[in-house]
Amino acid sequence: MNYSAQVMEHFSNPRNVGELPGANAVGESGNAKCGDIMKMYLKIENGVIQDASFKTFGCGAAIATSSMATELIKGKTIEEALKVSNSAVVEALGGLPESKIHCSVLAEKAVKAAIANYKGN
Length: 121
Hints:
This protein is α+β, with helices and mostly antiparallel strands.
């Protein structure tokens, strides 16, 4: 499988890893078929995502998409973060092999689950 330089960079040096102290929103997403599980932690103040982190159990693409998703939503309003799609994550990573697109979907779902948790849904 050929991965872009961005995917390899985010896999080798993931950003925002681990539980986030002071997180007031937590969301989880998983795929039973491949076994990947992502947990997103957000710190939201006045409707803006001040900080974001993740813990992911999965392949390199799962780790890279989680890392990129946190980078894309930091500093954004809740509304802006909800518009960050899996395809935006894939594009920011310079593409993903077709068989790994589901990892970007998990990242999008984990962000949305965390925001839903924050909103009390």
